[in-house]
Amino acid sequence: MNRRERAGIGMTSARTRDRLVERLRSNGIANAQVLEQIREVPRHLFVDEALASRAYEDTALPLGRGQTISQPYIVAAMTEELVRDEGDGRTPGKVLEIGTGCGYQTAVLAGFVRHIFSIERIQELFRRAQGNLQSLGINNVSLRHADGWHGWRSQAPFDGILVAAAPRTVPEELLEQLEDGGRLVLPVGAPGGQSLVSLTRRGTRFERRDLLRVSFVPLVEGIES
Ligand code: SAH
Predict the structure, then answer these.
(1) d(Cα 145, Cα 61) in Å, to the nearest integer?
(2) 143 found inside a domain
């Protein structure tokens, strides 16, 4: 891809991206590195061309197959929570992501962690994410077409786990795959009543924070082509 495509023009230009970053900052995103990644990652290349002019609005957009690319504010808030250090200098080295979608959240996270393992249950989206990440030269990511309910046991434990679709209750198998001190960030609940939850492992206990009301597609069992 050439520089012009990546940098964007018109409604996908640097000025448009700056406005999005300002909006996220005024809505409470404080981590400068997170804001910088949101500015850098070309969201317009992750959506259908017909939607590219809306890529830097702070809104979720359709991805096809009934799925959506998450709202930038939510991507930023989840990333900020996942990498939040409590004065212990902790930054997650190894992260599991469930619900790759088109790979936008993956690309934002890739700037912070050593390696991301990311799982998508719909093969068509898995392939699209593969293409998107490859064309941006992002290579600290391993993608897998599988059911994320079970995590990625052979690569566990993880310093962080981020889930981009909502289960009704927190999946036990994901908690088991967290490193001590590691953090799981996910939406939980039924449609219309979900909250974004953060669970930090402290030995056999989990410290829970409820962050905000959200609206995600459901975490679904099994895979599709
Ligand atoms: N963050 C993504 C969008 C996520 S939409 C982005 O930036 O594009 C949620 C995604 O979770 C969808 O692609 C959906 O297919 C996927 N998903 C739902 N249940 C899943 C499961 N059990 N395992 C893996 N992926 C799942």
Answers:
(1) 22
(2) yes
